[in-house]
UniProtKB/TrEMBL annotation:
Residues 312-528 form the Peptidase M24 domain. Residues 7-138 form the Creatinase N-terminal domain. CDD domains: APP (cd01085). The lineage of its organism: Bacteria, Pseudomonadati, Pseudomonadota, Alphaproteobacteria, Sphingomonadales. It comes from Sandarakinorhabdus fusca. It comes from the Bacteria. This is M24 family metallopeptidase. Belongs to the peptidase M24B family. Pfam families: Creatinase_N, Creatinase_N_2, Peptidase_M24, Peptidase_M24_C. PANTHER family: XAA-PRO AMINOPEPTIDASE 1 (PTHR43763).
Length: 597
């Protein structure tokens, strides 16, 4: 089946054979992951959509694809509109669309290993109002028609040394064991891949750009762990690292193990444990406590060793990015560069550090109109030339053993228009406002988001993505539970209090469809702030990212004295910390690129 229509037709035939009238296709895996292995890319296989968030629904002869504002342009370029209706989230959802279009007697299938129980319950209620039924499938129909579907990765596990983790796996397990005992629970199911990696101080290569391994874990109150994973993925060194209290079992044993908790109390996180997990526990007679994954906050609040590591990673990564910016400034005006070639060159500079493990996500390399697609993914087919008097946006990052980076810089090639400078400066003003914020302990990300948007709002402008997401320590580039986003955001974590030790991004932007896009992104560390005479505990942000911001796009007349000072101080720090890592030519260029405004 070489085209999307053939695949839709094959799915329709399979659904008919299964006595189903519809099916829901999310972009996730059995762990509710944002980034998934090739074997779980069912949405892309069926629709052609290559973004990192979305879903599809098929009902009879109708089909729809659901994406949020980050992918408004991308979905229309990749998914044929004659086969799929484009639906905007959070204005609607797959469940709402199915309820609107279903009829009495319809049987809508879903894979219980790819949805939360909350989604299942809510969707079942919506469909019941129309007399339709939501049906759990024993086998995913897409998997049955997907010829050549990739197998699950068998890449070997790797140890994340204590010198980078800052805490032993035994100590982490003991803390969770004590917490379980305190609440009268016998065990907790840990399904999120990055949680398992953090808990056991292991890393993997099963998911592109995210160093995790496909596994499930059950942590017991005695601090012992059952780790469900393909045994061939473990070397003797990894087994020795895990120790005798971590019992390695085949991944296929996971569901039967859940059924064996009859009469005992098990904690499961409804956000990361899929419906099938809850069903197996309930069917086996377990008492279930719905509670947040106990590793979540501990993972989000970095310890001193992790903080020192991420600082070192950002200095190293900032030097690589600055070398690229110097190279780009000289090469772009000559012509001949493309989005693909620029992204490849940036990767090359990172590889020259000799400690790059991977990129932290596929580089967003957008020229001109493609820069207006917030989560654009360049390909051979879409790659545009980088031309004079146009904007180039590059959002990229690296995975290093001591930290994960994520940074966006927007550059002008040639001469910017007055509008470009106005928009860039408004984005910069918002970035500075958030960077300089001092706020009381207990503040949530949703309460800070408007700081970054206010100057765009003044001109009747906005952007359709969050302002900040959490970042892991040699783990996921998108890590919860904290985030900074507008109140209308459909993504979780916006109401999470920010705590000292958390890492977030600060990335306001502006996108003019069909013309250009702007984003300025630094990673920041939440730190305690001491203010003379303060009557409450205060927090603020420390810049981790170190790379010059394009002065040629700044309209200094729009900046206040305090904002100009922020830029000058930030650039002085970039010169001081990045300059010594550069050769003479790049250091001379950096001196000009960071000269006081």
């Amino acid at each position: 089946m070489s085209n999307i229509k053939d695949r839709l037709d094959a799915l329709a035939a399979q659904l008919a054979a299964d006595r189903l009238t519809g099916f829901v296709v999310p972009l996730t895996d059995e762990h509710m992951s944002e980034y998934v292995g090739a074997y779980a890319q069912r949405l892309e296989w069926l629709t052609g959509f290559g973004g990192s968030a979305g879903s599809a629904a098929v009902l009879g002869s109708k089909a729809a694809i659901f994406t949020d504002g980050r992918y408004t342009l991308q979905v229309r370029e990749q998914v044929p509109g004659d086969l799929f209706e484009y639906q905007d989230v959070p204005r609607t959802s797959a469940a709402q669309w199915l309820a609107e279009h279903s009829a009495a007697g319809d049987r809508i299938g879903y894979d219980p290993w790819l949805h939360t129980r909350g989604w299942v319950d809510a969707t079942r209620r919506l469909l019941a109002d129309k007399g339709a039924e939501l049906v759990a499938v024993a086998a995913n129909p897409i998997d049955r028609i997907w010829d050549g579907r990739p197998a699950q990765s068998l890449a070997r596990l790797e140890v994340q040394a204590d010198e980078h983790a800052g805490q032993t796996a035994a100590d982490k397990r003991a803390e969770i064991g004590r917490a379980l005992a305190a609440r009268g629970a016998d065990a907790v199911v840990v399904a999120a891949l990055d949680s398992i990696a953090w808990l056991l101080n292991i890393r993997g290569r099963d998911v592109s750009r995210t160093p995790v391994a496909l596994a499930f874990a059950i942590v017991h109150a005695d601090a012992g762990v059952d780790l469900f994973i393909a045994p061939e993925k473990l070397s003797e060194a990894v087994r020795a690292h895990l120790g005798p209290d971590v019992r390695v079992r085949p991944r296929a044993d996971f569901a039967p193990a859940l059924a064996g908790f009859g009469g005992r109390t098990v904690v499961a996180d409804p956000a990361s444990c899929v419906a099938a997990i809850f069903a197996a526990l309930a069917d086996g007679g377990a008492t279930i406590i719905e509670a947040r994954d106990p590793t979540l906050l501990a993972k989000a609040v970095k310890n001193p060793v992790e903080i020192a590591g991420t600082v070192a990673a950002h200095r190293r990564d900032g030097a690589a990015l600055t070398r690229f910016l110097h190279w780009f400034d000289g090469e772009a005006p000559k012509g001949g560069l493309t989005e693909m070639s620029a992204a490849a060159k940036l990767k090359q500079f990172r590889e020259q550090t000799n400690v790059l493990e991977d990129l932290s996500f596929d580089t967003i390399s957008g020229a001109g109109p493609n820069a207006a697609i917030p989560h654009y993914r360049v390909s051979e087919e879409s790659s545009r030339p980088i031309v004079m008097d146009s904007i180039y946006l590059v959002d990229s990052g690296g995975q290093y053993r001591d930290g994960t980076t994520d940074v966006t810089r927007t550059m002008i090639v040639g001469t910017p228009t007055a509008e470009m400078k106005d928009r860039f400066t408004r984005v910069l003003k918002g970035h500075i406002a958030l960077a300089r914020a001092i706020f009381p302990a207990g503040t949530r990300g949703v309460q800070l988001d408007a700081l970054a948007r206010q100057y765009l709002w003044e001109a009747g402008l906005d952007y359709a993505h969050g302002t900040g997401h959490g970042v892991g320590s040699y783990l996921s580039v998108h890590e919860g539970p904290q985030r900074i986003a507008a109140a209308w955001s459909s993504q979780p974590g916006n109401d999470e209090p920010l705590l000292a030790g958390m890492i977030l991004s600060n990335e306001p932007g502006y996108y003019k469809s069909g013309e250009y896009g702007i984003r300025i992104e630094n990673l920041v560390l939440v730190e305690e702030r001491r203010v003379p005479g303060a009557e409450k505990d205060l927090l603020g942000f420390r810049e981790l990212t170190l790379a010059p911001i394009d002065r040629n796009l700044i309209d200094t007349a729009l900046l206040t004295a305090a904002e100009r000072q922020w830029v000058d101080l930030y650039h002085a720090r970039v010169r001081a910390e990045i300059g010594p890592q550069l050769d003479d030519a790049a250091r001379a260029w950096l001196a000009g690129a960071t000269a006081p405004l």
